[in-house]
Amino acid sequence: MRVEQILRKKGTKVVTVRMNESLQTAAQLMRRENIGAVVVKDVCGTEGEVVVGMLSERDILRAVADRGASALALPASVFMSRPVISCGPGDTLDAVQALMDEHHIRHVPVLDEHTLIGVLSIRDVLGAELGGARETVPLSSWRSVRVSTLGASS
Asked: 79 with 72: CB under 8 angstroms?
């Protein structure tokens, strides 16, 4: 299966922020849209049409963990992941999954001739590979799971 086939099914809505918008603005947008990452676009010289990075939940968590709440006032460009790891509409799902595995990312912008046309998430890729197949697991099977707790000295 190819990227373009998934985009036809899921649609091509892409949520973006400009690189000078605050981390807080980006986080609020991600929460409102219920998404795990936004595409960061340039603000000068290209009228905001060039993809310059990705900002994920992980990036926001790292920023706040490292710098505290004051990080939320800083621009998204400070914390975004770059260079941009992208795919094209003709790429296969295997190729996209390999990109995700290699770079430890869960969201990949789809570029067609440098134009942003979509974003694929790991959920999109796995959903397409599974073809909507889901296994029903009885609740009773969860009761037999053993959980070990490790202390700080373990």
From this structure: no
SS (H, E, C) 28-57: HHHHHHCCCEEEEECCCCCCCCCEEEEEEH
Strands 37-41 and 51-56: antiparallel
Q: CATH assignment of 3-130?
A: 3.10.580.10
21-34 pLDDT, tens digit each? 999 999 999 999 99
Domain chopping of the chain, boundaries: 3-130
Q: Which two tokens stand for residue 50?
A: 């060039």
> Is the bond preceding residue 83 a cis peptide, omega within 30 degrees?
yes
Report pTM: 0.79
Is there a contact between 38 and 29 (Cβ–Cβ < 8 Å)? yes
**β-strand pairing of 51-56 with 107-112:** unpaired
DSSP helix/strand/coil, 22? strand
- In 3D, which of 110, 27, 134 has the Cα closest to residue 76? 27
Give the Cα separation of 56 and 81 in Å (integer).
8
**Contact yes or no for 53/82 (Cβ under 8 A):** yes
